[in-house]
Specification:
The complex is a heterodimer. By secondary structure, chain A is of the alpha+beta class. Chain A has helices at 6-13, 62-75, 80-83, 88-94, 103-120, 142-152, 157-164, 174-193, 199-220, 242-245, 249-265, and strands spanning 26-32, 37-45, 51-59, 133-135, 140-141, 223-231, 234-241, 270-273. The longest helix of chain A is centred in the last third of the chain and has 22 residues, at 199-220. The termini of chain A are far apart. Chain B is built from 15 helices and 13 strands. Chain B starts with 10 loop residues before the first strand and ends with a helix. The chains are: A alpha+beta, B alpha/beta.
């Protein structure tokens, strides 16, 4: 038995905005009866691109009906542009959460919206066309799996199955999914590494570079360097010893100190003597 | 358990999942919890005397399955243990034989065991079924080889209720290879159809307590004398070394009592219960245009019907039935915990338009005509409401027209 929130229960008991729409401005149709869930979303859009009405029909379980109801309630009255930003997590949040194994219902809602917007813009929704299909049971493409991993910060194969069903059938593709997942996690880790450092982290890091790569060289010539402060991208330093009165101190600063620091901290930094 | 739903308000149509423990069974069990709590293996009378009641229960179960000797009955924990014990135990006792025959529609307790054994190097032949859920006996005959250690086959299917001709299949097996062991999973047949193993060539047969109004956590396995089998659970000498572990005394005694009641009720199953099932099935087919029965309506246990409601999804039906206090189950993917719908219905080639909307209704001696009428009154409204949500309106309309034209 699933643990559905009160809101999910209310919506599957009494779904809202159900039915076919006459003369819709856009229709989005996703899923298939073979996979066990299908959703058809109809939109009315006015001249200023505002969604004035939305209706749906679905073949699916309780959480699919609830997700579709929630979706229509969330987008009616919104400009298309704003509605397009809606994520599957927004749908799940609106419902007070969905069981993990049912997250794919919220994804279906998001996909139907994407398909409807594409339809409105005169484009063809490119679900499962010409792309590499990874999960043959549910026809899930590599791009779709990558998108699901990114949007929901997933880190297990089971998680991916819960969100888009891929790997939940015969299970033969689980190794392929694992490879895609590992790849995405690696990318995510690199991105994390690029996250801007806090000021303290920046000071520690700069000081280490100065100490290990710069000061040691300067000391050979009887000079030295000290970190004074960091203001945004400006690294404020003091030169000591023989460097202080050296005529080429400006060259040292730009050609050597700044060059080394840029290699480690990025091209946007600037070294200033104070 | 504050918001627990009381059983007296429940319309229970899920007896293939589990059954209500018969009050008379509970009564026989109660003294063995805190009055006669001794261990039957003990030397003193207070413990040892319990052994007599276990002996009685063994005879009662032997009577239910028609064993020649009560010593051919061993108590276990459930139907799943029976399947594991039979298959693994026979393979271990016959190390030279690496082949297993079973069907595509077995319960997961057999299928997941054979899948595991395939990984360990055994070969498994899975016999398919036709659209009625019936086996092809010629295909079965051809599947038995010189190195076939065991055939594992259910007597009645848990999802559709379809009965396999296991007695005939045991004959065929022995005809081709007398040393192949024939195991029957009779969990869904016991108490519903007469079983008389002594007149058959069946070697091993398993039953489960909680499907025949005994408690959960107890089962029994019949092993014909002379059958080579190793135990699955090693330990003490209980069950004459075939199944170690201190006896689940109260439940075993309950299973004995339930076996007696099952024998007494078998006529009720094949008459009154069958009549109610047929009324329910006919009524739903008459009232709901997109309803269709899955599986043979001839070779079937009397308590089960599996009906598909095309173009709507099973879990959604169950949730709405639950709001009406009706308990049933579905072969839909959404309810199974996996994402694949019923392997039984898929093996039968039931179209996907129907598999996801399949509902199993299973009755018991406790089912009343009032309950059947209640389902017939309420369920058509549920289906009508859910049909309205389906994106397949065109297909539904066509189906309705075909149905009307036939009338």
């Amino acid at each position: 038995m699933w643990e559905y929130t009160k809101k999910v229960q209310d919506y599957y008991r009494n779904p809202v905005n159900v039915g076919e729409m006459e003369n819709p401005d856009a229709v989005g149709e996703v899923g298939s009866i073979t996979c066990g869930d299908a959703l058809k979303l109809y939109l009315k859009v006015d001249k200023s691109n505002i969604i004035t009405d939305a209706k749906f029909q679905t073949f699916g379980c309780g959480s699919a009906v609830a997700s579709a109801s929630a979706l229509t309630e969330m987008i009616i009255g919104k400009p298309l542009e704003e509605a397009a930003k809606l994520t599957n997590q927004d749908i799940a949040d609106f419902l007070g959460g969905l069981p993990e194994q049912k997250m794919h219902c919220s994804v279906l809602g998001k996909e139907a919206l994407e398909a409807a917007i594409a339809n409105y813009n005169g484009e063809i929704y490119t679900e499962n066309t010409g792309e590499k299909v990874i999960c043959k049971c549910f026809g899930t493409t590599e791009d779709k799996i990558r998108q699901i991993i990114k949007e929901n910060s997933l880190d297990t194969v089971e998680g991916i199955t819960n969100y888009c069903k891929a790997g939940g059938g015969c299970g033969n593709c689980r190794n392929d999914i694992k490879k895609i997942l590992d790849d995405e996690i690696k990318k995510r880790d690199v991105q994390h590494a690029k996250k801007p450092l806090t000021k303290t982290q920046m000071i520690i890091k700069t000081n280490n570079i100065l100490e290990n790569h710069i000061a040691t060289e300067l000391r050979k010539d009887g000079g030295d360097i000290e970190l004074v402060d960091i203001e945004d991208n400006k690294i404020l330093v003091n030169l000591h010893g023989s460097c202080k009165n050296c005529r080429s101190s400006n060259l040292t600063l730009k050609n050597f100190v700044e060059k080394i620091l840029k290699e480690h901290l990025g091209p946007e930094i600037e070294v200033v003597e104070v | 358990m504050e918001n627990i739903i009381k059983s007296e308000n429940i319309i229970y149509f899920d007896n293939n999942a589990t059954t209500k423990v018969d009050e008379r069974v509970v009564e026989t069990m109660v003294p063995f919890f805190s009055t006669y709590y001794g261990n039957p293996s003990s030397m003193y009378t207070f413990g040892g005397q319990v052994g007599k009641y276990i002996k009685d229960a063994r005879a009662q179960v032997a009577d239910l399955v028609g064993a020649a000797d009560p010593l051919e009955i061993f108590f276990t924990s459930c139907g799943t243990e029976n399947a594991n014990m039979a298959i693994r135990g026979v393979l271990e006792a016959n190390p030279g034989k690496k082949h297993i025959v079973t069907t595509k529609v077995e319960h997961p307790c057999v299928l997941n065991t054979t899948k595991r054994l395939e990984k360990l190097g055994y070969q498994v032949t899975y016999i398919g079924v036709n659209s009625e859920g019936e086996l092809d006996l010629d295909e079965f005959r051809d599947s038995i080889r010189d190195n076939t250690a065991i055939v594992a086959c259910m007597w009645a299917n848990n999802e559709t209720g379809v009965i396999f001709p296991v007695e005939k299949m045991a004959e065929i097996t022995k005809e081709i290879n007398p040393s192949t062991v024939f195991f029957v999973d009779a969990v869904q047949a016991a108490g519903k159809v007469p079983i008389n193993v002594k007149n058959t060539r069946i070697d091993i047969l398993g039953i489960s307590g909680h499907k025949i109004h005994a408690p959960k956590g107890v089962g029994a396995i019949y092993i014909r004398k002379g059958t080579l089998i190793c135990p699955l659970i090693h330990g003490g000498h209980q069950e004459r070394g075939k199944r170690a572990g201190t006896e689940n005394v109260a439940s075993i005694i309950g299973l004995g009592a339930a076996a007696v009641l099952a024998v007494d009720n078998i006529k009720d199953e094949s008459t009154r219960v069958k009549m109610l099932r047929d009324k329910l099935e006919r009524g739903l087919l008459e009232r709901i245009f997109n309803a269709r029965v899955n599986g043979s309506r001839i070779n079937r246990v009397p308590n089960t019907t599996n009906i598909s409601f095309e173009y709507i999804e099973g879990e959604l039906i169950l949730l709405h039935l639950s709001d009406l206090n009706i308990c049933a189950s579905s072969g839909s993917a959404c309810t199974s915990g996996s994402l694949e719908p019923s392997h039984v219905l898929r093996s039968m080639g039931i179209p996907f338009t129907a598999i996801h909307g399949s509902i199993r209704l299973s009755l018991s001696r406790y089912t009343s005509e009032t309950e059947v009428d209640y389902v017939l009154d309420t369920m058509p409204h549920v289906i009508k409401k859910l049909n309205g949500i389906s994106p397949f309106q065109k297909q539904l309309k066509e189906l309705e027209e075909i149905k009307l034209a036939r009338k």
